[in-house]
Design a protein that fits this description.
Strand order of the largest sheet: 4-5-3-6
Helix content: 55-70%
Largest sheet: 4 strands, antiparallel
Shape: elongated
Amino acid sequence: MRFIETFNLQSFGDSSVSLLAAFVFGPLIGAERQYRQRSAGLRTNALVALGGAAFVDLAQRLGGDVQSLRVIAYVVSGIGFLGAGAIIREGANVRGLNTAATLWCSAAVGACTGSDMLAEAGLLTFFIIAGNTVLRSVVQIVDRLPAQSQNPEAGFMIRMSIHDGAAQTVSSKLDHDLQQAGFRIDSTSFVRKDEDTIAVQIRLAPSANNSDALTTCLSPLSGHPDIISVSWDSAGDS
């Protein structure tokens, strides 16, 4: 029988340890997902870790380290299709990204055990579980912070269309008024729209001043004979 020729007790024991480690680490990762009633729970993560370990171990026994590296690359890309099945889109909301990422990490744990890197697999398992538990509390704390506390200052972008001959004069006067009001100008650009019209964009650096102060500075421009249009919006970094 071919089995008698290929069977090696030492190799069999090595594979058994690798698969057993994957069977322990995978369910440890999946237990948290199972507790939270996610689509990919204990059994799914266990099977992903086992599959990754089995493929890598098989490649290592048949082709050595070089072949196992190729299989690891296939595991990394192939598990993406399984993770995509855990992602659910509901209108503008997307659920399951964290579960898909957990499956991806479970495959990494399996690849580590299949490569006989049991200590590294155990360490990775610890960090995955910590990421799904400890960081959850951190996320909840951050989510409770008011939006203005996360980005208390926002810049503004002013856009104007001005008759060609008055573009420089008007923008210089506005620059002076903005600086007097406490705004700091980050950049000013001039772009010709047509033969008689210049588009001016003034970007204001983040400032403690609010939109009311900016409206006060811009309101006198609405009746200026050389200004065709003027508008502004928030240009804060998100």
